[in-house]
Amino acid sequence: MTYAHLPSVITVVIPHLNQRLGLFRCLAALDAGHRRADEIIVVDNGSDRPPIEICAQFENVRLLHQPAAGPGLARNLGVENAVGNVLAFIDADCIPSPEWLAVAQHVLKSGQVDILGGDVRIVCEDRKSLTMVEAYESIFAYRMDRYIARQGFTGTGNLVMRRDVFDRVGPFAGLTTAEDREWGQRATALGEHIHFAPDMGVFHPARASFADLQAKWDRQISHDMQLCTGWQGKLRWTAKAVMLAASPIAEIPQILMSKRITGARDRAKAFICLAGIRLHRSARMLQILGGGNTGHYIARWNRSDAG
Question: Cα–Cα distance between 215 and 31 in angstroms, integer?
């Protein structure tokens, strides 16, 4: 019997760390979905208040605890305890669309693809009055189609796969690695194909402040620096840092043409934020090259909420 004829049993795995409000919204959206999960595993990664009562409000939700830090390790524990032949990964602060699992099941049932990366859009507090970070992230964040086409990975905030694929590729890496990129590129190197599913949508909140956006890039830069070895790597790193500072000019056409935001004011906000964050990235790259502490930035892997 081929996979296309097997019934789909879907396990959703959600790593969690101090995001109680986000987790409640995520679970509520899953509960209201057109295709509900057969099993949801929330893996707490050391929260100040484990979300026991939040998980208890929903059916088919199990709460596990992973004491070792890192969302990749939390996901691995969830997979180890999963009963599904389909694994769906989402972050605790994300909101799946009503069609999320229904689309995933439909596409996987074709038997033509094994790994799906879905579209991720930014949720804004007021679409009529975007903050600079909201305007910027609406255009430039979570461009999963590009990640899949150009870099061979997709984000773990919206990732669905057959269980046997995970078993072949192996577990996610720990906190010191950009685990979504590393896993996806490992899968691609083994001959697996990641399919972009634009209708498999997830909504992600924008970062609350420019400082949060800086922290996100500090973590990414620290991961990237670990791959920079030898004098040639350091030379390329320095060149990239210098080019980043001037790169916002080249992004003006994309800002003007993007359909993800409207209006001249919001496009101007997006450019100002883009210029600011790329200058920050450039300066941070040069600082870390000179011996900055990468471990400090990597440890800040999640955004806590007030719940």
Answer: 32
Q: Angle, to 10 degrees, between the axis of helix 230-246 and the axis of helix 264-289? A: 150
pTM of the predicted structure, to 2 decimals: 0.85
159-168 residue pLDDT tens: 999 999 999 9
Superfamily classification of domain 3-205: Spore Coat Polysaccharide Biosynthesis Protein SpsA; Chain A (3.90.550.10)
CATH 3.90.550.10 occupies which residues in the chain?
3-205
Taking the C-alpha atoms of residue 210 and residue 283, their distance in angstroms, rounded to an integer, is 15
> Which alpha helices (H) appear in 190-289, and where do they start and end?
210-225, 230-246, 252-257, 264-289
Residue range 116-129: mean pLDDT, rounded: 90
The answer to whether residue 307 scores a pLDDT higher than 60 is no
Structure tokens at 114: 């094994």
Indicate the SS3 state at residue 88.
strand
Rg of the chain over Cα atoms, rounded to whole angstroms, equals 19
The yes-or-no verdict on residue 70 having pLDDT over 70 is yes
303 vs 59: CA distance, rounded Å: 26
Question: Which element (helix H / strand E) includes 202?
Answer: strand 194-205
